[in-house]
Design a protein that fits this description.
about 80% helix; single chain; Four Helix Bundle (Hemerythrin (Met), subunit A)
Length: about 130
């Protein structure tokens, strides 16, 4: 059963990854990063299910999720997860959206998407 749940999270993340790539190519940068958060969150949840329990914590805080899953991270990976967590909040809530939208230049988004791609490949090697 746990294997089915891990597969569910991976497949869902893969679907969101394709959407993130499409949004990035369409220059919808803030929503691409929002989807990048979902890609990362779902892979962390797959890791959690594989290594801890099938009942994943109800949190969108990626660093907390990774720590609860027992994932060994570098300081730069911790910083990355903290940054990506802000994409969830900033893209979702109106009072943050405008400021976040201005921050999401092509350069900022390209760098962030590259880091999401790299983290995705890294964590998938452990799934």
């Amino acid at each position: 059963m746990g294997k089915d749940i891990v597969g569910y999270w991976i497949n869902s993340s893969d679907g969101d990854f394709g959407t993130m790539e499409h949004l990035f190519k369409s220059r919808d940068y803030s929503w691409a990063l929002f989807l990048g958060h979902l890609v990362t969150e779902k892979l962390l949840k797959a890791y959690y299910v594989k290594n801890i329990d099938k009942n994943v914590p109800f949190t969108h805080d990626l660093l907390r999720l990774a720590e609860r899953a027992g994932l060994k991270l570098t300081e730069s990976q911790k910083d990355f997860l903290d940054m990506v967590t802000t994409f969830n909040i900033n893209a979702r809530y109106d009072d943050y959206k405008m400021k976040f939208h201005k921050k999401c230049t092509r350069e900022f988004t390209a760098k962030s998407v590259k880091e999401i791609r790299e983290f995705r490949l890294w964590i998938k090697t452990m799934l």
